[in-house]
Amino acid sequence: MKCIDFFCGAGGSTLGAKLAGHEVIAAYDYNSTFLKSYRENHPEVRAYNRNILELESSDLPEGADILMGSTPCESFSLLNMHGRTCDISLTTHFLKLVEDYKPKIWVMENVPQVAKFLPDGTPYKMLCAADFGVPQKRKRCMVGNFPEPVPTHRFGELNSWVKFGKIKDTNKDNWSILSMKAIEGAYRRVWEMGKKGNSFLVRFVDDNTVLNTVTSSEFHGVRAGSHIVYDHGVLRRLTFLECMRAQSFPDDYIFRGTIAERYKQVGQAVPPLMMKKVLEGLKRT
Fold it and tell me: 10 Å Cβ neighbour count for 115?
């Protein structure tokens, strides 16, 4: 089946669609740096640097069977839900494109909190990426009319390969050791955020841990929701390679931009293996 990928980023959904045996005929994103990564890995796809809000269904290539998109999730993230106004314009416009284009299948990925902002009757499923072999307990709201994907790794009975030790970067040259000052700063932020009634959760992991959601801020080392690895007696942040593997990207996938931009691209991506499992069910249908 032919697909169009909106908010394509570095191409996680596109890679998943291709792994499921589908063809992506067009992709759209507003971030030119992310598109550089996308074009490196998917040169056969026509990738457009466009503001999705300016697109109408008549602007899209004809003949697509599937519309898929990962609308930006910052507005709906639990880390941003304290007294902030949620901007649902991009999600609303994607749903309008679906309504006007009338594809056979459509899929939209976002954080679970987006469900409360969807129009009544919009179909969605709450899925955990670890259930489909992604080495990360990444919970997502998958919106659309796709068939229920079949889990390969039931949550709570995860195969050992999804644990952190199986994806660990053993090259110590890539390790970024956290200083005592960084750890002290984390405890200070826990105290300051707690006084405001907000949470500041840092997750410690070792070889036997299954990672929680890898975020776009892992580059900064100690931020709310970030991971701290206890490894050979030291505390360090996740390496870029570990973030790639946690999102189920292959080691040779190319990311462009600064190291901070690359961490952001990985953290915001749709895990390719998860999208593969979602779109594989179309063959059975």
Answer: 15
Half-sphere exposure of 219 (CA within 13 A, CB side): 14
Residue for token pair 């644990």: 163
Contact 179, 228 (CB under 8 A): no
In Å, how far from its chain's centre is CA 5? 14
pTM score: 0.90
pLDDT (tens digit per residue) in 114-158: 999 999 999 999 999 998 989 999 999 999 999 999 888 765 555
- Give the bridge partners for 25, in sequence order: none
Q: Which two tokens stand for residue 244?
A: 């790639």
Element counts in the chain: helices (H) and strands (E): 7, 10
Q: Give all domains of the chain, ordered by start, each with its CATH number.
A: 2-156+270-284 (3.40.50.150), 160-246 (no CATH)
Q: How far apart are CA 49 and CA 35, in angstroms?
A: 7
Mapping DSSP to helix (H, G, I), strand (E, B) and coil, where does residue 201 land? coil
Alpha helices in 135-271 (DSSP H): 180-195, 240-246, 259-268
Buried b (16+ CB within 10 A) or exposed e, 129-142: bbbbbbbbbbbbbb
Could you tell me the two tokens for 261? 């931009």
Residue 126's identity, in one-letter code, is: M
Q: Judge whether 31 and 65 are in contact, CB under 8 Å.
A: no
Residue 213: other Cβ atoms inside 10 A: 18
Q: Judging by beta carbons within 10 Å of its beta carbon (0-12, 13-18, 19+), is residue 284 exposed, middle or buried?
A: exposed
